[in-house]
Design goal:
The protein is of the alpha/beta class. It is 43% helix and 20% strand. Strands 2-1-3-4-5 form a 5-stranded mixed beta sheet, sandwiched between helices.
């Protein structure tokens, strides 16, 4: 099993123990998080689905991301991934969400946001409890595939850490 497969398996086990479900809003990974999760047998018990929001209009229309924030801050920003995570939680019945938006390359980087810059947000909601969201900017090295793979692995790690912070049923 690869690191990603191990992380996805562990995430599923931890979610199952709690009776929780997970969802994702993906941009730069293009469905890679969903693919990693659905490679695990039984994922349908704890995975609700993923929105691949590559285009900004999809972020706006499906995930309720502010058009002003997209225009002023860009899709690769803390505010946007926070809104993506909250937006995907609003679409499905899940307890945990992850959102990723970044520059996988080989083009598209700038001085402020070089290739390999990725924002990752994890969100948690349980029942009537308000949504809590943590977001962080990561910088990954390598070509496009390497940046995407590292993003998927880090997203899974962050979801796993968030789930493990909460007691089992």
């Amino acid at each position: 099993m690869t690191d990603i497969s191990v992380l996805a398996q562990e995430l599923g086990e931890e979610l199952h123990k709690r009776g929780w479900k997970v969802t994702a809003a993906e941009s730069c990974t293009g469905g890679g998080i969903a693919a990693a999760i659905t490679s695990i047998a039984g994922a349908s018990d704890w995975f609700e689905g993923s929105v691949v929001s590559y285009a900004n209009w999809v972020k706006r229309e499906l995930l309720s991301v502010s058009g002003d924030d997209l225009e002023e801050l860009g899709a690769v920003s803390e505010e946007v991934v926070r809104q993506m995570a909250s937006g995907v939680l609003g679409l499905v019945d899940a307890n945990v969400a992850v959102a990723v938006s970044g520059i996988a390359g080989p083009d598209g980087g700038t001085e402020d946001k070089p290739v390999g810059t990725v924002w990752i947000a994890v969100a948690h909601s349980e029942g009537q409890e308000p949504v809590t969201i943590d977001a962080e900017c990561c910088h990954f090295d390598g070509d496009r595939a390497a940046v995407q793979e590292q993003t998927v692995a880090e997203a899974l790690r962050r979801m796993l850490a968030l789930v493990r912070e909460h007691p089992e049923k």
